[in-house]
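Let's study my pick:
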Amino acid sequence: MASSKNKSVVFALISVAIWSTLSTVAKLVLGALPNLETLGVSSLFAFLFMAAALLVSGKYRLLKMYAPRQYFKMAALGFLGLFLYSALYYFGLGSLTAGEACILNYLWPVMLVLFSCVILKEKLTMKMAIALLCSFAGVVVLSFGGSNEGGGRWIGMAACVIAAACYGLYCVLNKKSGFDQTVMMTVVWLTVTVCCFAVGPFIEEWAMPAGMQWVGLVWLGVFVNAAAYLTWGLALQKAEGTALVANLAYIVPFLSVIISTAVLKEELKLTAVAALVLIVGGILLQSVKHE
């Protein structure tokens, strides 16, 4: 039992470490490549990784289980939860620091609770309501940091908040679907890839990536988008209970801020720290009821 628990924690920490690099690596790549090209190429790598995982695990046999309408539903979820989410998040990165964007990204557990109450008819307790207000207060605090010339900062913040809402809704709808997650994620990343390649070249000027840009795209696609989800799934599978593993995910925004400050030399503002504490504190407060 102890060995299984230790493996669960190790797998979870691997996911946390990889996810913590998302904002910084994406910010670096987006400095040279347009948003949808970055998302499209990295999603292609994620799809190829997941397709290989389907073959190696033998789960490709499950492909026969699903009807066309179910694949359409998977694709629709992928459009909502990872195409719109990622496109909006990358857009927000353009006018915010990597640390700020990551902090706002962690509103998705808050959105998950809200959509669970509306769609899954889960009860909204007083403790949960206070926790939600605490997290949203973090957004208000963050809005006071930095200049807002031309309204770009507020637009970037709005994009990140809407992105978090898209991902929160995706999580709730995915929970209801009951699809095998390896099959689901393979279809999802294929959907994101198709959407980006179908739209991107018409609204952006795409260029051939070079040198370290390829490294960044592979990292985002294979590791952040695919491998980290796989190790996270293994962590949940091997855990005796989900509380410990789930709470480890809240290390991500703290690590992300540290990495972006060290690598990108971003200024760590007091408003960002306060917002981070409020948002993550609110999330942890609402999770207490599960422990």
